[in-house]
Design a protein that fits this description.
rod-shaped; 309 residues; seven-stranded mixed sheet; 15 strands; 3 helices; SH3 type barrels; eight-stranded mixed sheet
Amino acid sequence: MNTQQQVMQQSELLNRLVLDRGTAEEVGRVNELWLSVREHQVVGFTCKSGILGSKKRSFAWAEIESIGADSIIVNLNPEANDPGKPEPPSTLIGHEIWTDVGNKVGKVADYLFVPETGAVVNYLFVSSGWRGRLDGVYILPISAIASIGSKRVIVADAAVQEPQLFTPGLTQKVTQAAEFIKEDFQKTKLDLDSLKRGGQQITEQVKDKAQFVGDKAKELSEQVKGQAQVAAEKAKELSEQVKDQAQVAAEKAKELSYQVKDQAQSVTEKAKEKLSEIKPKRQDGAVDGEAEKTIDVSVSLDVEEKSKP
């Protein structure tokens, strides 16, 4: 037999499709598994078909070819006789569980078995409120079973004092959810605290950066201000120098003007002296006028030559 699971629940096979390997036709759907309670072994199953499941057919576990996630493949032999249910047909599903000291524990709800062999591994039971357990599915080991009757199973009290939880019930789920929420809240709180500390660190860093930039800007402003003041003082000093140089030049020009004037007066006097010494021949009064003009022109040219730098 080929299977896809090592262990499965009896309830997983109920209502599963049954197909014939030889014809690929639908045989029916699983209605019941046969269990040998003394050997704790699945020995066969019944499938139903037709209107309202009116047709039933039984298969021994050996006739199963494979068990998949969606169907059971069987080798159907039309000529073979229906093996029928074992005598007495039995299942522990719904049996009450009592301890050997007289305490009612709960009811058998399911069992786990190996598909390859049909061997039962563990039974599963639901609590009837025993020891405060109101819901959830628990594991009942085969070794804990002391005896089996038509309606009840007696188990060792010590074996079910702290049963192993198989499927959590509503109470367990609520408790788990509460624990998860609590853990998540604590984790979220830690994350928020971490973010808060990170935000404070970033704020401090930004504050330090802003202060550093402000100090640098202030320092640069002072430098610019100092350089501007030095430049202003340099400009003022240069202005004073230019003013002094201009005053000196004006004084020199004034002095030169006086010198030129004195020289012109001196030249004029010398020219007059020379003129008085000359005894030109006069034919008429026009000669003296022309001579004076010549003297004035000579004096002007002489003054211009001396005034040139």
